[in-house]
Amino acid sequence: MALGSGGMRLLVFVMMLAGLVGCATSPGSPDTNASEISRLGDEPVMLKTVQRAVYFTGQYEMPVNEIREQTRPLAQKVAVAAVKNAKLDIVGPLTLFLPDWRQPTFGDITLELGYPVTGSGQNLARYQKQMKDDFQCLTVTREAGSDSQDAWAELYRIAEENSLTATGDNRTVVSRNGSGYQIELQLGVRRK
Question: Is the pTM of this model over 0.70?
């Protein structure tokens, strides 16, 4: 079956999207100002500042126990909207902007899901393009799919032990790690 020019463009777009689906971008350059302040099992817990960036995000409400299952389809929707509809370039990994986990998390939570982007692009009603300021955080990297509840609790404990105050602004960054994926939990902090 021969493809016309419209079909070929669609095929190229779908192939490009396949690279984005599942958060297939690599993490940004390592933060040279990061410093290890503790360990969580075998993994270092780092204090670092994520540089400000423009993100293209969608806001979603869902039960907390469905975040893992909903991430991939929502990442696809946001990636398609950013690249195809808003005409932006995705320049970094998928990022989930999460609530303060110290609060009870029964029922639905509201989170933002998006990618760092470049380009002027078009505004879309369902999505936001916004500058996120520098973000100081404690981070730990884990294999995607691992249970993160205990890791978040440990990050809060480590922050307290190091005279840091949790800001309630948390992120999870999803990126490729060889043939699989990894997540970087980022607990927003500031000095007491």
Answer: yes
